[in-house]
């Protein structure tokens, strides 16, 4: 199944400009198989950046770009001779070529080094963490306006079944909350201060969504001094992109155990499918669409409207837009 970002990259494929050197879909700090293109072709595979690994080795130094270009040209000639024009198995190779060519354009851009530079003072301002560094790169990519249409950042280690409030542990609720607040807050502030060629703030043209998979058990902590998975209530944040800010949609009971006020037209808790439909709608994408020319022949719906046991009355969370 294609990740949300892959579908958005696919939808915006016709709008790519010749000058666009960044891939349409970028992910950061995800495992290699967590977000993929699914049944779409490799043009919609995300570029996964790992901000925990130091420098980005694919940035070609300015003085080496000529030699790098010559070597890639030689490689293309050798591959062409080896495969031959009549090879019936060329489709996977052509997809690989398209993905690689996109990477080569990015690697040889004089702007890529600036985009991927992490200044020490800015790292500090963003919280001095892999998540904060990812937020800096996100800001840089957005400001470059070089073809990227979806960025996904992963901040892991929130699954606190044990020792959730133990400050002696490397990871605890306080540290992760601090990282999230610093990185996300600075990102929203910087994007809001960035002006676009059209005039409005970049935040007006950028939808920022922050959420997880589920909530945590409310009330007293468990015998293991942690909190377990809780599917009955959780929270999420929407900002920018036409969002009407300064409001909370829906409400839980005092403990955060269950939803007591849905706050939107469906009169029920909000499902992940509703969130996906809302994101697509904010970007002008018809979320009811489906792709039929898949490898298996089975249609892929942008938003699934049935579960294993029931049909889902999916809808857009319209109050977020005012």
Q: What does it look like?
A:
By secondary structure, the protein is an alpha/beta fold. The protein has 2 domains: 1-154, no CATH class; 244-322, no CATH class. Helices cover 32% and strands 11% of the residues. It has a 3-stranded parallel sheet with strand order 2-1-3. Strands 4-7 form a two-stranded antiparallel ribbon. The longest helix has 21 residues, at 173-193.
Short account of what is shown:
With 322 residues, the chain is of the alpha/beta class.
Question: Which properties best describe this structure?
Answer:
3-stranded parallel β-sheet; globular; two-stranded antiparallel sheet; alpha/beta; single chain; 8 helices; 322 residues; 11 strands; 2 domains
Element layout with pairings:
Elements: H1 4-11, E1 25-28, E2 47-49, H2 65-83, H3 90-107, H4 112-115, H5 120-125, H6 130-144, E3 150-153, H7 173-193, E4 207-211, E5 215-216, E6 229-230, E7 236-240, E8 251-252, E9 259-261, H8 272-282, E10 290-291, E11 300-301
Parallel strand pairs: 1-2, 1-3
Antiparallel strand pairs: 4-7, 5-6, 8-9, 10-11
Helix pairs in contact: 6-7
